[in-house]
Amino acid sequence: MPDQFHPPLPASIEETIDMLGKQDYLAGRALGTVLFLALKMKRPLFLEGEAGVGKTEIAKVLSKALGRPLIRLQCYEGLDVASAVYEWNYPAQMLEIRLAEASGLTDRDRIEADIFSERYLVRRPVLQALSSEDGRAPVFLIDELDRTDEAFEAFLLEVLSDFQVTIPELGTIKASEPPIVIITTNRTREVHDALKRRCLYHWVDYPGAEQELEIIRRKVPGCNVALSNQIVAYVQKLRTLDLFKNPGVAETIDWATALTELDRLALDPETISDTIGALLKYQDDIARIQSSEGTKVLEDLKSEMRAVG
To answer: Which of 186, 194, 279, 285 is the Cys-Cys partner for 255 at CB 3.0 to 4.6 Å?
Structure first.
């Protein structure tokens, strides 16, 4: 029976958007629709987009909103089955073998059956995700899949097809209820079409000015209205430049927080130069903004705001 700790899945697109909004995640109708369908159809949701646009946050918000555990598989180059799925506790197994030998136990089959039991199995994120708590499937976040190689991607395809893995010593372990799967990628390489076909797809873009302003209002409530407007307008302009790495929503929040902590009421060249490290993370980008180009962006911004005012 659903309760306050285990809420039911949303029954409509509007409920999905409202569920995210209650966790301070502002979603447009397109994202709300694909997320609702992914939950309804029990299909993995494949989220693609630039770093910092809020893809990972969707899984975290789902976990909180639905009262389900979040299991995160952080992908990286060289990720293998032992790190992602399971491995055996070899030190404990060796200790058990020595204790068995010391006690005079010589039945190899019995010893093997004992050391290759659940007691010595170390469950990694994939295997954890296939194990429901109290009959409620967890939220399984496969983060930055594009960082892995094609071999692991092929293995993951098999897991997502049947939501099961086979452990030679124990047999096949199958999920009683498929987990809610969120896959993210920053598109540093193309993910194979076969895996994408198993998923529903959504491109997560940078928010528009109005949406980003509302995010600042919710995440940095101490930031005054005038400064919030300037911050958002400035960041939106920076994203139109040919920067090595555009600032994401997380960086906008960090910058607004930093300026609020410094009791700033408006942007000026000195303030931008002193705090730009909260917004941009690459020296070449910082050097551009600390030069006359950054000053011009601010001047253009102020001219536009005066014209509107």
So the answer is: 279
How many other CB atoms sit within 10 Å of the CB of residue 239?
Answer: 12
Beta-strand ranges (E) seen in 149-250 are: 164-167, 171-174, 180-185, 200-203
Alpha carbon distance 25, 279 (integer Å) = 20
Q: Read off the DSSP letter of residue 278.
A: G
Is 68:182 a contact under the CB 8 Å cutoff? no
Total-model pTM: 0.87
Contact predicate 178/139, CB 8 Å: no
Per-residue confidence (pLDDT) for residue 242, from 0 to 100: 85
Q: Is the C-alpha dihedral spanning 129, 130, 134, 138 positive or negative?
A: positive
Q: Which two tokens stand for residue 284?
A: 């070449």
- Asked whether the predicted pLDDT for residue 2 surpasses 60, the reply is no
Output the CA angle 89-116-169, nearest 5 degrees: 115
Kindly give the interhelix angle for 55-66 and 29-41, rounded to the nearest 10 degrees.
60
b/e burial code for range 205-218 (CB count within 10 A of at least 16 → b): ebbeeeebbbbbee
| Burial class of residue 108 (count of CB atoms within 10 Å of its CB; 0-12, 13-18, 19+) | exposed
pLDDT tens digits, one per residue of 231-244: 999 999 999 998 99
CA 144, CA 165: separation in Å to the nearest integer? 22
Indicate the residue type of 153. E
Q: Which residues contact 218 (CB under 8 A, 6 or more apart)?
A: 24, 26
Q: What are the tens digits of pLDDT across the range 4-16? A: 567 889 999 999 9
* Site of tokens 């708590």: 133
Token representation of residue 225: 């209205």
Give, as one character, the DSSP assignment of residue 133. Answer: B
pLDDT digits over 99-123, tens only?
Answer: 887 888 777 778 788 888 888 899 9
